[in-house]
Amino acid sequence: MEQGPITAADVAAALELSSPAVRRHLDALLADGEADVRDAPRRGPRGRGRPPRQYLLTDAGRARFGHGYDDLAVAALRYLAEHGGPDAVEGFAQSRVEELLGDGIATVTAAHGADARVEALADVLTARGYAAQARSAGTGPGGHGVQLCQHHCPVAHVAAEFPALCEAETHAFAELLGTHVQRLATIARGDSACTTHVPLDPPEIRRSTTTTTIPRGRQPE
């Protein structure tokens, strides 16, 4: 869960079990529709043979992690939307994410540096049941940054009908990290993880920024 799509060999190493034993369990999950399998993306030149296979949970598999109150939550939000309108739903979503982060806000803001704050936020979310991790995104279309990946979402089925839950979460991340963030994928839309891109200054810019001296009496423009 914490690594998202994962190979049988990686599961075996993490759990200190034999690969055949792990594959038997994975085959059972596949047969029950609780897991799916796909070829791992290739890195580097194409080699011989079939690429390793990666396993990931389906909606049915995620249900094991606690969706027992989904129907009740959806019904409650439908009632709220009908009688209070979209603003009421958005207000609820904002209140929920504030409660979710709770005292974790102080933990994140105390971290030094943008990348450290993302790591701290991932730790807070993991403690709340979101199996989150921060991954370096390198330099790409979104620029240099970090991807915050949440491999579990307790409200995914509810958020599929009420995306305001995802939007409030994204907005809270942006405010907490002090930068614009971009939500690239969500479990609610059928992706394997909720992925948020957090832009960072390239290393060379950060180095030059830390060595810049501002003359006394002048303020940065």
Structural features, described:
This is Transcriptional regulator. It comes from Pseudonocardia petroleophila. Residues 35-54, 195-221 are annotated as: Disordered. InterPro entries: WH-like_DNA-bd_sf, WH_DNA-bd_sf. Strands 4-5-7-6 form a four-stranded antiparallel β-sheet, covered by helices on one side. The protein is α+β, with helices and mostly antiparallel strands and 221 residues long. It is globular. It has two domains: 6-39 and 52-65, Winged helix-like DNA-binding domain superfamily/Winged helix DNA-binding domain (Arc Repressor Mutant, subunit A, Orthogonal Bundle); 70-207, Muramoyl-pentapeptide Carboxypeptidase, domain 2 (2-Layer Sandwich), CATH 3.30.1380. The longest helix is centred in the middle third of the chain and has 16 residues, at 86-101. Residues 205-216 have low confidence and may be disordered. The protein contains ten helices and seven strands. The chain is 48% helix and 16% strand. It starts with 5 loop residues before the first strand and ends in a 10-residue tail after the last helix. The chain has helices at residues 8-15, 19-31, 59-62, 70-84, 86-101, 104-110, 114-127, 156-161, 164-177, 203-211; strands at 6-7, 35-39, 53-57, 132-138, 145-150, 182-185, 194-199.
Quick structural gist:
With 221 residues, the protein is α+β, with helices and mostly antiparallel strands.
